[in-house]
Amino acid sequence: MHRTERDQEVSALDRTLTKLRAELHELMQDNKRNWESVSSQMELQIANSEKGHTTSSQLLSEKKLSLKTNIETERQSGRDAEATLRKKKERIEADLTSQVLFVLWFAILCFDVGNQI
To answer: How far apart are CA 32 and CA 45, in angstroms?
Structure first.
């Protein structure tokens, strides 16, 4: 009987081992599926992040170029306005100088005419 008990014990242990192997296999399959799912989600998130980064970088580059262009336009506009104002100032100074010279000439003329009478 001892052998029969032993055979039953071996059989029970064999069933337990088979059951544990099946559970282990199932857990390994679940882990593999979970890993693939997480890996897929991670890859998708990385791709989306890279796309977002690329888009953001492109938008920032475009904005930078636009701002540079605006600055240069404003700078040139300021230079043009300054040149126009300088020319206007020079014309006004020249007109004022000629008016002052005319008044001086007229005053001298009047003085000479007054002295001659």
So the answer is: 20
